């Protein structure tokens, strides 16, 4: 279950998850104390909702692992991690603090995304030779639509009047150089899938993943010993995307440069056996497509539907384009 926290970034590593959570809570407490070392505001400026968000994710994750425990015997794998990067956190960020919101987000996460992901992987991805990540992120999108639509009809789910923007904490900070900000933004991209978006969380997660790899190279990264190349591809695609689309970060803005970090870039590495040409091309194509596609799709998202739906849909589109392009080129 602990490893599920970092499986959205393509390495199921308990040490990476410890780093992620330690960094996330460090960023949260630094934000609460108004420290100048807080970095990018945790969870897009929804700091007060962060503990409730983590609570909803943990509850949903525990229940999912218990509910689908019978499908995990004899070394079998199931995408139990999908609740970490989808409905529970999105519901709390939309509707605020409170036990009713926490419980609703957790339950909706359990009943929507994991079953859909398992269904799509078994009946769409596997028969057609499509990377599993496409089915996973498509399930997140469909589950997000179902959950957000359901919340609109639940009488206890009310949007707070003082809600800050869902995104808007990735801005270029004039107090730091462009290069320093770029490094911080790349690190933050590594924790965006978990709705944290902090360089503390992303940086310590990478440290934990590397420590886990040094202890046992076959453990992180699905036993393929490709973690160094996966990390390199992720850093490269994030850096290219941040440089390409940095204008959308200015003036308090935000954009989904993390899309290829958790989808097309690691897929290019794993699907093509760590090929350097696939790594570089996959990172570049993913960076060029991920954020603009997500931004375009976000314009179609109605009110009270979290924009993560657009982001994960962009992951499916970007991954398919990258995978098919590399199959044709290589």
TrEMBL record:
List residues traversing the bilayer.
Answer: 12-30, 50-68, 80-100, 106-126, 133-155, 200-219, 226-248, 268-292, 304-326
Key words of the record:
Membrane, Transmembrane, Transmembrane helix
Write the protein's name.
Integral membrane protein
The record lists the organism as: Rhodococcus zopfii
The organism's taxonomy opens as: Bacteria, Bacillati, Actinomycetota, Actinomycetes, Mycobacteriales
